Amino acid sequence: MSRLILSGIVCCLVLRTAYAIPACAQDDEDCRESHMHPDLLSERDRLTSQSRIAGEETTEYWLDQGKQFVKEKLHTPANQNIAKNIIMFLGDGMGITTHSAARTLLGGEEKSLYFETFPHTGLSRTFNVDKIVPDSASTATAYLCGVKAIGGTIGVSGHVDRTDCVGSANVTYHVNSIAKWAVDAGKSAGVVTTTRITHASPAGVYAHVAERDWENDSEVKGDCGTDTVVQDIAYQLIHGEVGSKLSVILGGGKREFIDSKLYAAGKRSDGRNLIEEYKQQSSRNAYVETLDELNSLNVTEVDRLLGLFQDNHLLYHLETNEQSNQPTLAELTRKSIEFLSRNDKGYFIFIEGGRIDHGHHDTYARLALDETLEFAKAIQLARELTNETDTLIVVTADHSHAMTYSGYADRGNDIFGSTTYTGKDGQPFMTLSYANGPSYETFFDVQQHARHDPTTLITGAIYDSFPSTIPLDSETHGGDDVAVFASGPWAHLFSGVYNQNTIPHMMAYASCVGSGLKACSTAN
Ligand SMILES: *[C@@H]1O[C@H](CO)[C@@H](O)[C@H](O)[C@H]1NC(C)=O
Ligand SMILES: *[C@@H]1O[C@H](CO)[C@@H](O)[C@H](O)[C@H]1NC(C)=O
Ligand SMILES: *[C@@H]1O[C@H](CO)[C@@H](O)[C@H](O)[C@H]1NC(C)=O
Ligand SMILES: *[C@@H]1O[C@H](CO)[C@@H](O)[C@H](O)[C@H]1NC(C)=O
Ligand SMILES: [Zn+2]
């Protein structure tokens, strides 16, 4: 007995030394301070009432907020209607740190992006068949087609390796997106993005390729030879089984559709102009290239709408002005919903804020967070234009990024500013930084083997780089789960922690499309 007690004491003494757990009486402030890291101490002392929100110092404020939240929950009955319409919003690379940080741009940490107020949320696990941290191609296959796949592949199962030309063309391995399930059920379907329309995420709606870079025929020929039967992504959009049935197609990437001999920016080498071919398919196929053209379009006079607003990706929202004549994501969303709502059977639409990801890859945190706000505006508009009783809106991301949101800046501090104290090298560090990326050399003096003061390098420009710890040409994606936000019929299904590929199965259940389980079937 005494030996047991003794070994117990020894164990705890060892632990205590190893982790330096402070032993202070509950109300002994002096003792606490003696254990506190000096930097944290000065941060605490710096905190003034000005950096806080009036009311938050009271007990009542938080008790009331808690009560209101419980009340809201009690008044959110499960919506078990059939979803006539499904709107899927995809924030490319919009990890949880991204939308959490973007809140502060609305005026403070306590604010919420519109979609963060949706009644039901869950977490999506994003790994793919061959990688822990996925890319946008395999994840599109997961959240649109319901199947996890190999990185870099789109609309094909895990049998097909990246750049496998033979596997790519074999229909046995093709997997279809929920856009096809919706069209087969008599609904309309559409795809909208701020990237090239042939980019990985939007391509998940309509394409089957073993390589996401096969956006034009030149790329395919490079990998598969000139006599290949593999069709490039732009070709599949205009002539493919799903692409040719999409009612709304809006984004960038005009260059992938036209031969370089016919159009200077063109990337094709097969002599084709796929935009002309689309127009020739029907006199009621409309084509637009500017915001003005989009606005003046009379939707009752056309059956299908193709809009390509840039040769490459759309400009970042912060890069545009009136001369750009480029629609915002919200403007694209408005027109699409107006257009698709004409079908009494409903619609499925995929709407991507695609450049959040690009901002992060370049460590341009300002651009990434601003694109996140634009994304949120489009979602708010979509919810206002539709009815929660019959339209399910699902908001998620394909994967996260290696951006961290670290401590401990004061309340009210600029999210793009530095934290309150310095590193052990005496230099300040930023609230936002990246685990890796191209900005390493900007912030690290390799010769001196020392960090520069980052606050002198971040000037407020839209192309401000934020520090990265490991030198890489492009900052990487992150493997942490991404959030899913749902509003409308069967939104409650989206709670929990689940694999990304289950998302379309839940959307299909809610709207009674596809060959899986359905809310309207008694055979569940
Ligand atoms: C497609 O794949 C299936 C299954 O492996 C195989 O039986 C078939 O021969 C393939 N078709 C072609 C055209 O390669
Ligand atoms: C399309 O083709 C051209 C060659 O004409 C190539 O340089 C370009 O990078 C291609 N791929 C994409 C994804 O645009
Ligand atoms: C749109 O076209 C329809 C049919 O041609 C016409 O009746 C309607 O007035 C037009 N609307 C606008 C705003 O021009
Ligand atoms: C939504 O639809 C329901 C049921 O049809 C209807 O009662 C309600 O007024 C609609 N709400 C709006 C904002 O249109
Ligand atoms: Zn990316």
Rg result: 26 Å
Major sheet size, sense and barrel closure: 10 strands, mixed
Structural class: alpha/beta
List the total number of helices.
Answer: 18
| Unreliable runs | 1-22, 36-41
Bound molecules: 2-acetamido-2-deoxy-beta-D-glucopyranose, zinc ion
Cofactor: Mg(2+); Zn(2+)
Binding site for Mg(2+): 92, 199, 201, 352
Active site: 136 (phosphoserine intermediate)
Signal peptide: 1-20
Structure description:
- Zn(2+) binds at residues 92, 357, 361, 398-399, 477.
- The active site is at residue 136.
- Its cofactor is Mg(2+); Zn(2+).
- This protein has 2 domains: 85-402 and 477-511, 3-Layer(aba) Sandwich (Alkaline Phosphatase, subunit A), CATH 3.40.720.10; 421-475, no CATH class.
- With 524 residues, it is an alpha/beta fold.
- The protein has helices at residues 2-19, 29-35, 38-46, 59-74, 96-103, 136-145, 165-169, 178-184, 200-206, 217-224, 233-239, 274-281, 291-296, 329-340, 356-361, 365-385, 440-443, 503-511; strands at residues 85-91, 120-125, 188-196, 248-252, 285-288, 304-308, 347-353, 391-397, 400-401, 403-405, 418-422, 428-430, 432-437, 444-445, 450-451, 468-471, 477-478, 482-487, 496-499.
- The N and C termini lie far apart (59 Å).
- Bound molecules: 2-acetamido-2-deoxy-beta-D-glucopyranose (4 copies) and zinc ion (ZN).
Helix/strand layout:
Blueprint: H1 2-19, H2 29-35, H3 38-46, H4 59-74, E1 85-91, H5 96-103, E2 120-125, H6 136-145, H7 165-169, H8 178-184, E3 188-196, H9 200-206, H10 217-224, H11 233-239, E4 248-252, H12 274-281, E5 285-288, H13 291-296, E6 304-308, H14 329-340, E7 347-353, H15 356-361, H16 365-385, E8 391-397, E9 400-401, E10 403-405, E11 418-422, E12 428-430, E13 432-437, H17 440-443, E14 444-445, E15 450-451, E16 468-471, E17 477-478, E18 482-487, E19 496-499, H18 503-511
Helix pairs in contact: 5-16, 6-9, 11-12, 14-16
The structure holds 2-acetamido-2-deoxy-beta-D-glucopyranose (4 copies) and zinc ion.
